[in-house]
Amino acid sequence: xxxxxxxxxxxxxxxxxxxxxxxxxxxxxxxxxxxxxxxxxxxxxxxxxxxxxxxxxxxxxxxxxxxxxxxxxxxxxxxxxxxxxxxxxxxxxxxxxxxxxxxxxxxxxxxxxx
Amino acid sequence: xxxxxxxxxxxxxxxxxxxxxxxxxxxxxxxxxxxxxxxxxxxxxxxxxxxxxxxxxxxxxxxxxxxxxxxxxxxxxxxxxxxxxxxxxxxxxxxxxxxxxxxxxxxxxxxx
Lengths: 114, 112
Description:
heterodimer, A: 11 strands, B: mainly beta, 6-stranded mixed beta sheet, 4-stranded antiparallel beta sheet
């Protein structure tokens, strides 16, 4: 199993450009998440989804959009890139059964906005 | 709101010495606690979890953690560290119906 796959691994954007960070999982997990990681700040939740067609805002959603048309895919969209969005982005997924389930993470996308 | 405090941002330790990484949480509901490890340029991997039952939880790579409800703590320990344990460690609380809340991380540096 590939687990959670994120593409691209690295990207440099200019201010004002847009891009989509791709995330796909092959574990048939209902729940998917997007985090950003900044040095010394831990992980901040951007958006999450509990199933296809359902998305919710996390702690830091401004400047981002998501969609969940299938169980497998959960893309993250940056419409107008800003320097404050320079970060490492992680996608994760978990089984949505009874009780808390551990999250499985991708290897991240390192994004620089110049 | 639930929160997690990792009391040390960096912990240097000599190889084969013991280590403790501290984590305190706040929650008004039943909690489920996790420790994750992040090796350089990788995503997070689950080390161990506490859901219920025995307060001493054993995880991978020789790590263990103890849930202490009265002190609202979930400290991570290893009796003898290796160079390969150099990584960032994250404590996280699962409040129930909402996603995980992560601490800011502790960078463990093992010195030869």
